[in-house]
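[step 3/7] fold_predict: job queued, chain A
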Amino acid sequence: MKSAPLVSVIIPTYNRAAVVGAAIESVLDQTYRDFEVIVVDDGSTDETPATLNRYADRIRVVRQTNAGAAAARNRGIAASRSALIAFQDSDDLWLPHKLERQVALMQRAGPLVPCCLSNIALGPRSKSRTTFDLAQIHSPFEAGLWLNVAEVLATRFVLFNQAVLIRRAALDKVGVFDSGLKYLEDYDLPLRLALEGPWAFIREPLVIYREGAQNSYSQQALRDPITLKDCELRIFTDILERLRKQGGDPAVEWQLEHRLRVFRRGRFIAKLLCRPAAARVLGKILWSLDHSYFALFRRSPWYPEAITRLVTQAPAPECKPDMASAVS
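[step 4/7] structure written:
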């Protein structure tokens, strides 16, 4: 029986016939070759199935009734066979050496490092800013270990899904995507992984984010602010409880508690903005004050900088899982 590859690449897609082919090609063109591609068609009603059929001998396609991106990724994880798992969005692109760079760094970093995150270019690479720029993640090192992930993620979102390579063992421990969240499941999982220890990181953008159809879901969240705040409150309440059960970290705990206060205030403001005119005026005033407060906080000593260092150890290469045990 053929052994399992080291990496499984999972691509959820829904009605992306015009762009999913380019995303698949960017994975198939990787310089690293020991991987499988699993595309989860989340109930597409356009020509997406026909597009996927063109790659029938090079990918595995799993089809399901439409259940959302989180459920589709989880279905791909369940179908995968590998020790390392990567995700690609169906309208973004990988640069050819993404997997090669990440696998090599994960092997050097060792089994206690749960994942590796690369930078992402926000549009054409020659002109764009990056996700590390937006999140103020700066390091003097091109690649290495990011030591205070939880403290940083407690204060800001970092684009994650397209750029991460995760150990299956870490997912087995912290759980997969929470498909019960309407929004921000791609914030919830990184926070859980952040409590598992330092991450490997690569400062170079290895992913190109193509702003377009995928942005509609973000826009939907902005038009649904109360539900968005409810998701934020649930995620941070749960992660604070998880942290305390693990013994806690005072710096991270302070940041989580602070962010929960911000979210509660934000939910109150969002409710005012949905009420009649007089309440909306008050809501706009409070929103402006809250926005100014956050701008000041980002310039304060309490806004954590990313702490990084080089990888100094050189453990043995990754071992592939036995196929029979991996799929059991």
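[step 5/7] annotate
The first helix runs from residue 20 to 28.
Residues 33 and 100 are 8 Å apart (CA to CA).
exit 0
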